[in-house]
Amino acid sequence: MNVKKISAPRKLPIAFDPKRSWPRKDGYYYECMICQDTISSMVPTYVRCRCRTLSIDPEAGRMGARDESKIQLFEKRSP
Ligand SMILES: [Zn+2]
Q1: Does the structure show a pLDDT above 80 at 3?
Q2: Distant-in-sequence, close-in-space partners of 33: CB < 8 Å, separation ≥ 6
Q3: Domain count for the chain
């Protein structure tokens, strides 16, 4: 049997309510489940994922998604 090991850093899913708040914190990342792009919640400038579903605009203090159900928040931890 072939067992694939997932290499570090570990991804810990964080529950968040996109209707209320989008946490920004070191180690917090947003992942678009459509294009698999991962964006740090602490990006210094405007970033959008490849498929343009997720966008983070720290200068305007805005983050959002066209389809919030496709966005996952997780924390990256070093092993
Ligand atoms: Zn995307």
Answers
A1: no
A2: 70, 71, 72
A3: 1
